[in-house]
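In the lab's daily routine, each protein ends up as an entry in a very long ledger. A line of letters takes care of the sequence, but it says nothing directly about the fold. The three-dimensional part falls to structure tokens, numbers that each stand for a local backbone shape. The outcome of that step, for a single protein, is printed below.
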Amino acid sequence: MDGIERCIDDEIPFEIPKNWKWTRFGQVISLLSGTDFKPEEYNDKQQGVPYITGASSLSEHGVLINRWTEVPRVIVNRGDVLLVCKGSGYGKTVICDIDEAHIARQIMAIKKMTTLDMPYIRVFLQANFEQIKSKGQGVIPGIDRNSVLNLLFPLPPLLEQRHIVEKQRELFNAITLI
């Protein structure tokens, strides 16, 4: 990290296939942190771009919109993975299903990349939910950027990422049928 190569052998939690790589999450993603607006900078009149304010703006299936802003500064797009980083819903994730929105400081976003399967990124974050939540600090629980960026990340080839996501869906669907 920071241009310095470091040995992480003592931190590796399990073995991975030879064609995978262990890395720090921050080495393979671009992470945005949101910013809040003053009340006069957003509206409920559907003017501007959606303004995602926190966990209550995210459902299991996507983004719920009830505020807009005409002065967006931290933009997320369809396909980005949104992570609640502050408040009661911290650790919650969803893949952005709207074209463009501004995120408040309660949200971080992993920007969509062609070298990563974004559903795999979400599965990774969900699988590490307890570890992420354990990093929560303060009276209002929150996750700092470094806690996300420094996560150890098992990076498989892109096709394998997609297979993992598909297998997880199959297994969860089978569980739901029981």
About this structure: The longest helix spans residues 158-177. The helical segments are 118-127, 129-134, 145-149, 158-177. The radius of gyration is 17 Å. Residues 72 and 133 are 28 Å apart (CA to CA).
